[in-house]
Each structure stands twice: as structure tokens, then as C-alpha cells.
Amino acid sequence: MTKEYAKNYKPIDLLAVAAAREVNDGDVVFAGTGLPMLAIALAQLTNAPEAACIYEAGSIDGRPIDLPTSVGDSRCAYQSSMAAGLTEAFYGQLHCGYVDLAFLGGAEIDKYGNVNTTVVGDYAAPSKRFTGSGGNPDINSLAKRTVFIMVQEKRRFKENVDYITSPGWRLPKWPSGEMVSRQEIYGKFFKGGPSAVITNMGVFRFDENGEIYLDTVHPGFTAEQVKENCLFDLNISRCKGETEPPTVQDIDLLYNTVDPEGIFLP
Amino acid sequence: MGKPQRISLKEAGNLIQDGDMLSFSGFTIWRRPMALIYELVRQGKKDLHLFEVNGGTHTEVLAGAGAVKMWESCWVGHELYGKLGEGIARGQVEGTILIEDYSHAQVVARLLAGAYGLPFFPTALSMGTDILNPKYDMLGKAGLRDGSNPKIPLKKYDTIQDPMYDMGELLLMPAANANWALVYASQVGDEGTVRVLGQTYVDQEVIKAADKVIVIAEEIVPDSYLRQEPEKNIAPGYAIDYVIECPWGAHPTGSQFFYDVDADFIRQFYAASKSKEAYDKWAAEWVFGVDSHEEYIQKLGVNRLENLRANSVLGYSTTMKRGSR
Q1: Structural domain boundaries, residue B90
Q2: pLDDT in tens, A125-165
Q3: Average pLDDT, stretch B196-201?
Q4: Closest by Cα among B117, B110, B124 to B53
Q5: DSSP B54
Q6: What is the CATH number assigned to the segment(s) A11-258?
Q7: Of A161, A243, B31, B95, which has fewest CB within 10 angstroms of its CB?
Q8: Which residues contact A114 (CB under 8 A, 6 or more apart)?
Q9: CB nearest to A167's CB, from B123, B128, B134
Q10: In this complex, is the C-beta atom of A72 within 8 Å of any C-beta atom belonging to chain B?
Q11: B88 contacts in A (CB within 8 Å)?
Q12: Which residues of A have a catalytic role annotated?
């Protein structure tokens, strides 16, 4: 059967669809609030029906029939295999090694995939505070793959983030702060790391040195435009073309099955 | 030990001293002990030291009132209904609140150590981040790690080389034992057995880790009922010191199988939390403008509460409008 691609869709729809396609069937996915919820729900209806979802407030493999608005929502726990708590989610599931894929967000990112969700400016005297880490760095620490979903803005794609909230591929080793590889920091605990960043302009991946590159560009944009929206020198030499657009079925599922109430997709 | 004592909200507020270290039940905007939080603001508490995995509307009600001196946590906001913790953020930027950032699972590690009577708990989560940057040990920089405050550990964290299986370096997180756990629970037995419905969050660890525990209960039920299915309970009565029966006591946060999150109320509070003036105006109406929890509930009105009421099978409201469609 040939795929029928949607002619009209919004940038957020493509974000959700591109994220859903990162899920392999059978993955155990640890997801945050918002777009990650749309992505895992869509993946379970399309390419990954056997994927299981963990939310950090403690619902393990829930089967929500109504879209949750946050990870602590009662809706997350509907038909879950366990309605447990934070200790189970972070130590019983994550630390012990069950998690294949993390779906997370971020305010700023650098070319090694280090993400900031804590402050703007010097941490000791910041000009702005964001929400803080939440479970982002923990989930990203020991998931085999992490996908970040972000807004593409020049000021958010920086040479160095103001504060490393969530660990990428090159990290400070404390107390000296010397930058070393993620493998050196995590040693035998190492399981993987950031594998993709999906924005409203493209899909990025990481090379053998842990440096980010543009993998595909979304329809309507050029690789050069994406590069112009990064403060660091983005590698676009490996860009293999356009991101696959959403199908008619994807859009129908997103608006009529996943989020019929218009919570994240107004 | 023995059975917990039944007290009033005002009496519970009187037990908390300025400067005490507090921890809470719930998760962001779910099952927070809001009625007791309002009472603490009404009583003008100051210099509180909050320790929590994540903050939510309760944190911001306390921060806006100027009641918070220290906040050790990893996140604060109101989920979909308010993207930042404005009061905590303002406190950090203006230097009026001392903030110590950890990761979610590192705070859980601190509570696990506290709950199990251990001095520390190991974890390999969130290594290589600025959370561990020695420059950002804020309580240390403030000179508070000299042992004079028994609630503040001598180090923010330490590292150890695994001596057992040669796994390499990992982190040791110090125990956190708050003076008080302020807990909202779905059901409490007349002998004090505690049950929560839905996800358990970190409530059990918060209860065990604290020196004293105050529970506000949506309903008090016969202990014999809770003991028919003991596997659903999270704490025995002897672990609880004080109990208050307080229907709708978590509002505007949600309580699984009783009521949903009051999104409009939190949105309005979030808007008010963006400045001291707007917060004070909000508090004059919703905290100081009512003398008791009963008056607060009356002010909310039947229609508003009925809209939030959870479907008894699904555990959440199926009548409230949540999105644009």
C-alpha cells in the first residue's frame, strides 16, 4: 500500500510524527509531558504497537484512554501494569536498565547534546530561571537512546549552554571540570545517550565523536536556514534530504484518537 | 507511637515553627496538602526550608507569601497550567531564596536514605552535569554545611569508587530527614492506616523520612475497611502523628478518584504569581479572605466542585472541558 501524505498540517504535527517514528516496536519508552505524550501514543497506534510507556510519577505501561495533561495525571495510570511511584520509575525501571528510549524536552542545547533546563546566565546569579531539571537528566543518563524535542531558535542552539542540566556526549568530570567523553563519566553504567534532536525545522543526529549534525530538513526549509538558526557551526554535510511528512492517517489519529479534546493540538 | 491524634488545621499550623524543614506528599499539581499550606500562610510562617522532589502550586503559594528561605528540589511549575515557578524563580534571581538544585532521582535517593535510616544512598544518575559542579553548592557557599543545622548535610554529595563489583565511580546522596511531612492522603483509617489511590508518587518515603507526620485526609474511614486489602496501604497508623479530616483538602491540585486538577484556578494563580502585588491581591481573596477551609470550599461553590468531581470508575473527571475542542 502506498502512503498518502497529508497536504495540510501544522509544524507541531510533524514534530509529533517525526518523534513517533523514533520508537522501535517493543521499546520501553520513558516520556515527559506534552509532545512526548503525543509521540508515544501515536507510535503505539502505528509503528510500535508493542512499545510500553513509563511516566516519571510512577505509572508503568499504562494504557490511557484519555490523553493525560501531565505525568502525574490519574489518566496515565489507567490499565497500567503497575501504578507505582517515583522510586519504582527511577530505580526499579530506569536504574536497573529497562529503558530503551527517553523522550525529553529542553530550553537550550549545545553541539554535544548537553541540555539546559535550569537557568539563563551564571547559575550563582542568574537572569532567569526555568523549571529546573525534573527527571530529564536522570532519564537521559541511563536510557539507551534519548530523543530531545525542542523549538529551533538561534539563541537556544549554543556553543556552550549556560548550565548543563542534562548530559550529552562530552561532559565535565568533577571536581576538576575537565571535559571528557560520556563513556568515561558513566563507565560500566554507560548504556547510550542522545540519539536525535527533533525541532520545528529538522531532525538532528550525533556522529561518532558525539557531535550533532543535521540529518533531515523539514519540508519548506533548507539546510542553510537550519544552520543559520544555530549559534554553533552546524554540520549540514550529512543531510540526506527532507523529513518524511505526516501521512493522512497520522493526522487523523493525532486529532481524532490521540488528542480529540485539543489539549496539546488546539 | 500509637494512634495519631485528631487535630484541627489551625492546631496543625501552630505545630510548625519558623525555620522548620518541610516535605510534602504528591507530585507537581497532584495530591498536595493545600488546605494546610493556606493555613501556614494565614499564620505568617517564615524562613521555611522546603525539601521536595518537585515543587508545584503549594510551593508557589508559600514562596509568594515570603515564607520560604531554602528550597532543595529539582523542578517547580504548574504543568500545563503555568510553565514556571515564578515565586521560586524570583527568589533565586533576587537572592531572597537559597536554592539547591538536584536531579529528580537524586532527591529520591536522599528521601530513600532518610526513609530507610541510612546516612546516604548511591546512584549513577545525572553524573557529568552542573548539578555536581562544586561552584554551585549553594548551601555550602552560604556557610551552612558546618554541622550547626542538623537538617543540612556536611556535603551536597560525595563520590565513591564501587568497592564491590568495580563498576567505577558513582554518587552518594545524603539522607534528608525533614522536621515535618505534610501529607494529603485519599483515605486514612480511624487508627491511622494511610491509603492513597492511583500512583503513589514518593509519599511513602516522605512519610518515613520525616521526624513528624501530619496527614490531611480526604476522608476518614474505619481502619477495618483498609485492612481488608492491606497491600493497597502505604503507612501504618503508628507512623502518623496527627490527622485532620479535610474534604477537598488538595484543591486546586487533583486527587485521584475524588477530583481533578482545577485548571482555571491554577491558571489564575499562576498569572498572579508573576508579581508580589498580584500575589498579595490573590492571597487577600483566597487565603486571608477566608477564615477556614470550610469558607474556602463555600467560596469555590458547588458548580465548580461538581465539574471537578472524578468519575468513580475512571478516577478522573469526564465532564470538565480540558482542551480547545
Answers
A1: 5-245
A2: 999 999 999 999 999 999 999 999 999 999 999 999 999 99
A3: 96
A4: B110
A5: S
A6: 3.40.1080.10
A7: B95
A8: A161, A164, A166, A167, A168, A170, A171
A9: B128
A10: yes
A11: 129
A12: 56
Query: Which single residue is written with the C-alpha cell 569508587?
Result: B161
State the cell numbers at B226: 483498609
Q: Please state, in angstroms and rounded to a whole number, the distance separating the CA atoms of residues A27 and A43.
A: 10
* Residues 142-201 of chain B whose Cβ lies under 8 A from any Cβ of chain A: 166-170, 198-201
Q: Which residues contact B168 (CB under 8 A, 6 or more apart)?
A: A186, A187, A188, A189, B161, B162
Q: Is the dihedral of CA B135, B137, B138, B139 positive or negative?
A: negative
A195 touches chain B (CB under 8 A): no
**Which pLDDT tens digit goes with each residue over B207-247?**
999 999 999 999 999 999 999 999 999 999 999 999 999 99
CB-CB under 8 Å, B135 with A124: yes
Q: Would the CB atoms of B325 and A262 count as touching at under 8 Å?
A: yes
Beta carbons within 10 angstroms of residue B214's beta carbon: 27
- Domain ranges (residues) in chain A: 11-258
| pLDDT one-digit tens code per residue, B302-320 | 999 999 999 999 999 999 9
Overall pTM surpassing 0.90 (yes/no): yes
Q: Are A159 and A232 in contact (CB under 8 A)?
A: yes
The nearest alpha carbon in chain B to A263 belongs to B323
* Domain at B84, CATH number: 3.40.1080.10
Q: Supply B52's cell numbers.
A: 521536595
Separation between Cα atoms, residue A88 and residue A55, nearest integer Å: 11
Contact A126 B106 (CB under 8 A): no
Across the interface, whether the CB atoms of A84 and B29 are under 8 A apart is answered no
Integer Cα distance of A163 and A109 in angstroms: 10
Mean model confidence pLDDT for chain B = 97
Contact indicator for B243, B217 with CB cutoff of 8 Å: yes
Rounded Cα distance, A118 and A31, in Å: 19
Per the domain annotation, does B314 fall within a domain?
no
For chain B, say whether A10 makes contact (Cβ under 8 Å): no
Within 17-56 of B, beta carbons closer than 8 Å to A belong to 26-30, 53-54
How many domains does chain B fold into? 1
ipTM over 0.90: yes
Q: How far is Cα B53 from Cα B49, in angstroms, rounded to an integer?
A: 13
